[in-house]
Amino acid sequence: MRRRRAGPFAARLHAAYTGPVEAPRSLYLHVPFCPQVCPYCDFHKMRRHEGLVAAYVERLEDEAAALAARFPNPLRTAYLGGGTPSHLRDHELARVFAALRRCWGGLGALETTLEADPGTFDAERARRWREAGVTRLSIGMQSTQDPVLRFLGRGHTGAQALQAVRDALGAGLHVSLDVITAVPGQDARADLEAAATSGAQHVSVYTLTVEPFTPFAQRGVRVDDERAADDFDLAEAVLRQHGLERYEVSNHARPGFESHHNRVYWRGDGWLALGPSAAGFEPPASGDPPGALGVRTRNPPIKTWLRAEPPERTPVNGPELTLELLMTGLRTREGVDLARVRARTGVDVATRYPRALALARQHALLRLDGDRLLATRAGTRVLNAVLRRFFAEAAA
Ligand code: SF4
After folding, report:
1. Under a CB-based contact definition with an 8 Å cutoff, are residues 276 and 305 in contact?
2. Is the pLDDT of residue 12 over 90?
3. Is the pTM of the predicted complex or chain greater than 0.85?
4. Cα-trace Rg, the chain
5. What is the C-alpha separation between 129 and 132, in angstroms, rounded?
6. What CATH number does the domain located at 283-395 have?
7. Which residue of 34, 36, 204, 216 sits with most ligand 1 atoms within 8 Å of its CB, as the best mutation to test the pocket?
8. What distance in Å separates the CA atoms of residue 219 and residue 216, rounded to the nearest whole number?
9. 26-262: CATH superfamily
10. What is the pLDDT of residues 19-77, one digit of tens each?
11. Which of 45, 80, 149, 151 to mutate to test the pocket of ligand 1 (most atoms within 8 A of CB)?
């Protein structure tokens, strides 16, 4: 099995290791096929062709069986992401669901999310997904304005996106919508209002980013930083007005509709990874370095994944996990439980990062509520800069 170095701080940081990650009860499954290739996207995705999809499904069944032999606990949450999982045909998705049932006795007992493109399903398909055990659709609406959708290279219209929400809700599915803001020419308020009043219980808002080597980067598309910051605040204000509270930097939900699966990531719990380029977080195995609390896994891209090449494994020790918990936890409304971090990693954040912590508190970017460390409203806006101070202090 290939191994990567243990991360940037492994050589320098040492502490007591007290809490390995528990056996995962969550699964991320990557479907790399998309109806179109959007010019801003840098995910692992491709157009489908029959031979490739057939080979993909077959390999997925084998990988699931091997994974379940090591981690047989029934799943609490499952997330089918991509790519565009709804771009699989019914018979292909049926095989994927059957594999999950065979391997783990069912889909996620608490939540199963399927990412869906508005142009790939109707009310009848949504009903079949619900019957198969899917509980939640994450719909890639992005915008309701057709010129914006065309600019983003999407294949659907605004009307189709809103119809997709009605179809999903009518089938008894919970709905999360993706919205992209700071798009040139977009009326962001109109899109946020449309998402908030669509009936969706959850809205994820992302700022358009121009990633290197994407068609947008080649075309020189630029995102206006000031506009991006304004839209970030606008999202919170508009969605809150309609009963959707921001509970993570990008995520807003009506009470009780927060994503269970994403919480697994943010709390540093374990999850399994299936499919090309899928990432997971597993308990350490024999052969991993002493002191590893967990292992990040990353499957190879589809070509080598189809040949059953094993995932890349990156062990994570206590100090590294502490930084990761700060990085993900501070993005959330619930913040970071420092007592839990101490118990899991052996690292006391207050004594390990006195300068970063003091500076952030002095500027009212972070605040302590008992043992809980939280980003303030101002801190949320500049979170990356706040976190950089913790990383710098770790490396000092
Ligand atoms: S549908 Fe999603 S994953 Fe596929 S190319 Fe577009 S943005 Fe990327």
Report:
1. yes
2. no
3. yes
4. 21
5. 5
6. 1.10.10.920
7. 34
8. 5
9. Aldolase class I (3.20.20.70)
10. 789 999 999 999 999 999 999 998 888 899 889 999 999 999 999 999 999 999 999 99
11. 45
